[in-house]
TrEMBL record:
One Gene Ontology term, aspect cellular component: plasma membrane
Predominant subcellular localization, coarse grouping: membrane
Protein name: Cadherin domain-containing protein
Gene Ontology terms, MF aspect: calcium ion binding
Localization: Membrane
């Protein structure tokens, strides 16, 4: 015995497909940029116009907004060129601590018609901090009978860029 699909069932199915395609055109894929920490203000991260497939005139006419989920507005959009630029210097250690990866998620909102784009900016560490030991000087006493090639472990060093390091 087969079940017939009634008018009401078709209406729900049509409504579901309509909403699916509406959301499909509203939320697009993800764009990811990678930059080094502590770039100067005004440094270009990437070309949003090109990467989002928009013309430069659309940037101004459609009221493009960039919102950061980090709370601070680290990036701005240069509407004249369609580029995402650094708004203020980013210190990776302050933002992400000792985490292996540091990614800032951004939301790009474009109006008329509404489009949402998720952008991620990965902040790469630059080695701007040198490691430091607790003691400045270490005296190692080695006996004459020590075999050549023997290793002597040193204390751990603290490097603000990577955490605690073991030096050999």
């Amino acid at each position: 015995m087969t079940k017939r699909v009634g008018y009401r069932d078709w209406r729900w199915l049509a409504l579901w497909w309509h909403n699916f395609f509406l959301l499909w055109s509203t939320i697009d894929g993800q764009t990811r940029y990678t930059i080094s920490e502590e770039l100067k203000q005004g440094s270009v991260v990437g070309n949003l116009a090109k990467d989002l497939g928009l013309g430069l005139s659309e940037f101004f006419d459609r009221k493009l907004h960039v919102a950061s989920e980090a709370g601070k507005q680290y990036f701005n959009v240069d509407a004249g060129k369609g580029e995402l630029v650094v708004n203020e210097r980013i210190d990776r250690e302050t933002l992400c601590g000792q985490s292996a990866s540091c990614v800032l998620p951004l939301q790009v909102v474009i109006e008329n018609p509404l489009q949402l784009h998720r952008i991620e900016v990965e902040i790469r560490d630059i080695n701007d901090n040198s490691p430091s030991f607790i003691t400045k000087e270490l005296t190692v006493k080695i006996a004459e009978s020590t075999v050549a090639g023997t290793r002597f472990p040193l204390e751990s060093a603290e490097d603000p860029d990577v955490g605690t390091c073991r030096w050999k």
